[in-house]
Amino acid sequence: MNEQTAKPENFVQRILLVMLTLSLTIVLAILGLYQFHKPNPYIQEVLARQGNEIQGHAIFQMNCAGCHGLMADGKVGPSLRVFLRASLIFA
Ligand code: HEC
User: Fold this and answer.
1) Ligand 1 mean position, distance from CA 68 (Å)
2) Phi and psi at residue 11, in whole multiples of 5°?
3) Of 84, 50, 86, which Cα lies nearest the Cα of 68?
4) 20 C-alpha vs ligand 1 centroid, how far in Å?
5) pLDDT, tens digit, for every residue of 10-69?
6) Given ligand 1 and candidates 80, 81, 85, which is best to mutate, with the most ligand atoms within 8 Å of its CB?
7) Among 72, 51, 54, which residue's Cα sits nearest to residue 82?
8) Does the global pTM surpass 0.85?
9) What phi, psi does 72 have (nearest 5°)?
């Protein structure tokens, strides 16, 4: 073993260098993943839809009202009114 690596200061410097390199690699990897992350096309398509109140109401009555109530105020399933209020606030 040569004398340079045996010194405690050099050992600490090496550890710090390795930790710095690892941190930098992880940060760059995360940035790279964000760079190439493509939004899910299905979610984008659904979010871009305009919607139709009349059709939506009919679909809700056919598929959801049996459990969530005709006015979404809860029956077997929980009330969905909180979601309606939230969608009005955050729309
Ligand atoms: C067979 C009965 C049933 C039907 C039909 C049904 N749900 Fe539910 N739903 C439930 C139950 C029970 C829960 C609560 C589940 C839980 O808390 O684990 C729930 C939970 C939910 C929640 C989450 C509520 C919360 O407070 O976390 C949403 C949103 C929801 N349903 C929407 C719908 C929609 C939209 C439809 C129609 C497309 C639908 N549900 C149809 C029974 C039903």
Assistant:
1) 7
2) -65, -45
3) 84
4) 49
5) 999 999 999 999 999 999 999 888 877 777 888 889 889 898 999 999 999 999 999 999
6) 80
7) 72
8) no
9) 60, 25
CATH topology of domain 43-90: Cytochrome Bc1 Complex; Chain D, domain 2 (1.10.760)
Domain boundaries, the chain: 3-36, 43-90
Q: Where are the alpha helices (DSSP H) in the chain?
A: 3-6, 8-36, 41-48, 53-63, 65-68, 81-90
- For atom 2 of ligand 1, which residue has the closest CA? 67
- Terminal C-alpha separation, the chain: 68
